[in-house]
Write a structure and sequence with these properties.
By secondary structure, the chain is α+β, with helices and mostly antiparallel strands. It has 12 helices and 12 strands.
Length: 394
């Protein structure tokens, strides 16, 4: 096998003959030079109709992407965390309208005593950033991040607006899971989601699995000072707003994975909003199990709970993304500018650069796509090609 950017990339896997257009779209993404390594999986009613992988795990294209290659899927993990929360609601382990402070008393500081689990899940708590300036590597200290968020004032009056909790979301919802179940988040995920579904998705990737991981090929220059942050998000003159925006992405440095995503420390850590490691099969299989409900395994959420998580809870102008947004409880919902296939009832979550997991409850379709060269943040053509190709085959 030849290596190098000019060589035809290795491809593996297969698809139902009816879904050959998905294979063609997948191959075209490589032929265009947009892809280095990637995988896509589609399941319908729990049956795998597409399971493809190809390309390379490294930038210099020497290590082929294999069937079991794992990769950091960024915010795709927020949808997986929503599935975990839904399964806990089904079991009676949480109540959406419980105040967070009921089991996390420190959270009541700063006028947050009435904030509910529902509001956390819907990005309405006003906690998209840590106010306190934190040192490099602080994101690896779960208790410190959670302590800062619990003790601080919110950036807006909770439930009066919504804004994407880019990196803090996983700590907030994860700490709710920990306090309500008594389990750390990685164990809760195994017990209530990936174990029953027989799928792979990891927060806190065991060191024994690091050999399977593809490196992320993207700029890794950390922004550590306000003058650097201002180049990414120009100062507005509103100090509170600027602090919120800058700290949401860059406090502590490396919080979003920039400069840290390919390190052992990052892979070992539990950073649920950002550092889930998985395969396309793991993502699609988890959504397929969620669509199937209780038939997928003991304690999986049923139709009533799924419908509650997938109805609109936050819509309009997002205070962080500064564009229209639409969220259920943890799930991104379809927007005209960012659909999840043609069905407006689909739900899921994009990850940085185009990775995607979603479920379509009407078609019983589950979709997973992961790669190691992120594209543009909002709309990635190669993702759209794969989704469109899958639906064209139905």
């Amino acid at each position: 096998m030849q290596s190098g950017a000019s060589a035809s990339p290795p491809m593996g896997g297969g698809c139902d003959p009816r879904f050959e257009p998905v294979r063609e779209a997948f191959a075209a993404n490589f032929a265009s030079g947009e892809e280095i390594g990637a995988a896509v999986c589609v399941q319908i009613e729990g049956v795998t109709v597409v399971d493809l992988w190809g390309g390379f795990r490294d930038e210099v294209r020497t290590r082929p992407w294999d069937e079991d290659t794992l990769v950091n899927a960024y915010s795709v993990g927020k949808g997986i965390l929503a599935i975990l929360a839904a399964n806990l609601l089904e079991r009676g382990a949480i109540d959406l309208d419980d105040p967070v402070a009921r089991r996390w008393p420190e959270f009541a500081a700063g006028g947050k005593g009435a904030v509910t689990i529902r509001q956390l899940l819907a990005h309405r708590a006003g906690l998209p950033a840590v106010r306190e300036r934190l040192p490099e590597g602080a994101m690896y200290d779960w208790d410190r991040i959670c302590g800062c968020l619990a003790g601080q004032d919110p950036f807006w009056s909770p439930d009066s607006a919504f804004g994407y909790h880019v990196n803090t979301y996983g700590y907030l919802v994860g700490e709710v899971v920990r306090r309500w179940t008594g389990l750390d988040l990685a164990e809760a995920l195994r017990r209530f989601v990936t174990g029953p579904a027989n799928t792979e998705f990891y927060w806190g990737l065991p060191r024994s699995q690091h050999r399977r991981v593809a490196e992320i090929v993207a700029p890794q220059v950390q922004l550590t000072r306000p003058e650097e942050w201002a180049r990414a998000f120009p100062a507005t003159g509103d100090a509170e707003h600027d602090l919120m925006m800058w700290h949401a992405y860059f406090n502590p440095s490396g919080f979003s994975g920039i400069g840290t995503v390919n390190t052992e420390a990052w892979r070992l850590a539990v950073i649920p909003s950002t550092n889930g490691h998985t395969t396309a099969r793991g993502v699609a299989g988890t959504y397929a199990a969620f669509l199937a409900g209780p038939d997928s395994g003991a304690g999986f959420a049923g139709e009533a709970v799924r419908s509650e998580f997938c109805r609109v809870h936050s819509a309009g102008e997002d205070r962080i993304l500064r564009r229209p947004g639409c969220f259920g409880l943890g799930f991104q919902l379809a927007l005209p500018t960012r659909p999840l296939g043609p069905n407006p009832r689909s739900f899921g979550h994009f990850g940085y650069g185009g990775s995607l997991g979603f479920g379509d409850p009407d078609r019983k379709l589950a979709f997973g796509y992961v790669m190691n060269r992120p594209g543009e943040r909002w709309q990635v053509a190669r993702t759209t090609r794969l989704v469109d190709a899958a639906y064209a085959c139905l």
